[in-house]
Design a protein that fits this description.
Layout: E1 4-5, E2 18-21, H1 35-46, E3 50-55, H2 61-70, E4 80-83, H3 84-93, E5 98-102, E6 117-118, E7 126-129, H4 144-152, E8 156-159, E9 165-168, E10 171-174, H5 176-185, E11 190-192, H6 198-212, E12 221-225, H7 228-238, E13 241-245, H8 251-254, H9 262-272, E14 278-280
Parallel strand pairs: 1-14, 2-3, 2-12, 3-4, 5-6, 5-7, 7-8, 8-11, 12-13, 13-14
Antiparallel strand pairs: 9-10
């Protein structure tokens, strides 16, 4: 299957009523917003489009909105936000028992207002993994002994962020998905609440329909993201078009700079078994 190399979102924007846009890697890098991307979404909405930001952030959407404000993402760049953390909270609310939380203190908001008791792994009934305790120093290998303990106790794990890695400025840091992947490889049972899995897309599409006051047509819906594993796989599974931002998490792998070499991209897509509809280095109008 072929794909289109584009340098302006405006060249394809009229095909779509709804955009499901990734946040980290497209709209910001964890330190500052990407001004051209924000401008593109603002312009798209001004022309009548609906934007739902869809993210594997392991925190409730109000927390993510506050982060967007701090990073300089304008409120008129989006209609609503759907997070992996929102779905994780629904899972927690529907389960009973004590929780062993793997993740940094900043993710503790995922439990706010829920009837849940946090315990050490030895007393837990299941595990919620939102990330590494210290993603500035640790790697998944540091968690092998802990995962062996979790597996030996046959504990169910909820992965609140299926991403393996993200870019934080110029650095690449591991996410909860890397620990969940290790646990799954060791025979553990894992539930992933974010992209590329269907529930987060169904929830995001429901928010888009509410914003538009009408049902959303898959043929008029576009997913924008910088990850083949999550964003583009999710789009393909959902049966909607994908716009791949090649200058994000895969930029080092492709050695792209500001270019998008067709052969390198084609080889990557063939290896992944995923071909997006369009490709651009960075989202811009």
């Amino acid at each position: 299957m072929s794909f289109d190399l584009i340098d302006r979102f405006s060249s394809v924007a009229s095909r779509y009523d709804v955009v499901l846009c990734d946040i980290w890697g497209v709209v910001h890098d964890g330190i500052a917003s990407h001004a051209p991307a924000c401008d593109a979404l603002v312009r798209y909405r001004a022309d009548g489009g609906t934007v739902v930001l869809i993210t594997n952030a392991p925190r409730p959407s109000p927390w993510v909105v506050r982060q967007l404000d701090r990073l300089g993402v304008p409120p008129d760049a989006y209609d609503d936000v759907m997070t992996s953390g929102d779905l994780t909270r629904e899972v927690i609310a529907g389960r009973k028992g004590a929780v062993f939380h793997i993740g940094p203190q900043r993710d503790i908001s995922i439990f706010d207002g829920l009837d849940v008791r946090l315990t050490p792994v030895e007393a837990a009934d299941y595990v919620v993994c939102s990330g590494l305790f210290d993603d500035t120093r640790e790697t998944p290998d540091d968690y092998r002994d802990m995962m062996a303990t979790v597996r030996d106790r046959r504990l169910f794990m909820v992965c609140a962020n299926p991403d393996l890695v993200v870019e934080r400025g110029d650095e690449r840091v591991y996410c909860a998905g890397a620990i969940a992947e290790l646990y799954g490889a060791m025979g553990g049972e894992v539930l992933y609440t974010g992209k590329p899995h269907r529930p987060i897309y169904d929830a995001a599409l429901a928010k888009a329909a509410d914003a538009r006051g009408a049902a959303v047509s898959p043929g008029r819906t576009l997913a924008i993201g910088d990850s083949l594993r999550t964003d583009m796989t999710g789009a393909q599974t959902l049966g909607i078009d994908g716009l791949f931002v090649s200058g994000g998490i895969h930029a080092q792998e492709l050695a792209l700079g500001e270019s998008t070499p067709h052969e390198a991209l084609g080889a990557m897509f063939a290896a992944a078994g995923i071909t997006p509809r369009s490709v651009m280095p960075r989202l811009a109008w």
